[in-house]
Amino acid sequence: MAQGGEKTQVITLSEPPKNSSLFAKAALGAVPLLSARKPTLPNRAVQLEGLRVDPDHLAAYCRATGLRFGDALPLTYPFVLTFPLAMRLVVARDFPFVAVGAVHAQNLIERTRDISVSEPLDIHAHVENLREHPKGLLVDVINDIRVGRELVWHQVTTFLHQQRTSLSGGPKPEPKPEEVPPPPLRTLRVDQKMITRYAAASGDHNPIHTSALGAKAFGFPKSIAHGMWSAAAVLGAIEGRIPGQTKYAVKFGKPILLPSTVNVYADQTKDGWDLALRHPKKGYPHLTATLR
Known about the structure:
By secondary structure, the protein is an alpha+beta fold. The chain has helices at 19-28, 55-65, 78-90, 192-202, 207-210, 212-217, 227-233, and strands at 9-13, 44-51, 103-111, 121-133, 136-147, 150-162, 186-190, 246-252, 260-269, 272-278, 285-291.
């Protein structure tokens, strides 16, 4: 990957970065880019080779998400392995926006086969596709995991940093009428204790998830659940029926304010599943997803 002919700077790590120090750096060291120039992304990548999964860490993740603990990694678990590398990129001083407070907008995971706990993993991360949105700046974090030369897991994580852009200030779409949601497959209760447990397992201590005051500082009335907690938790409805080779595309809707009860939906299609988490009274989506 090269931008405009510029050679990519590749940072090779010997161990995963510590998320606590990365968030401290993001909160204290980074400043928004106050410039008339169009923001640009640094041409940089991070890689880590031979990572071994810690079974205790995997077990903590499974407890936090309700997913099954076994030899095969849950579909969403590699996200928490790649997250520190992504953070290493976005907390850099020359990154065009501050990482703390950024919102997870959507996520795409493509897995070629089941991944065993015992396999050594080579991880590569880079950031691309910075673009404007009416609500701010969007950017894609690309993560690849290989076992030897075999690509086993690919992810595109899209983050939104809320700020004014040239697309801001346009007419707002008409609010959709509230609908009474259909009966759910099940309901799911989520509270701060559960999300704090997920923050510890995932390493994502963004204050919008862990602190009511921190959430208010970024415009949320209460702390909110992690997007990738909900993306993992909804898979519990179809666990055991997810093929090794699969494509999981998630769009995040209105955040889940803590505490909440949400409706879980899982509808089988001819080629996979349509999944959703919805507000139990107003029917709007917190998450919609397809698994193919």
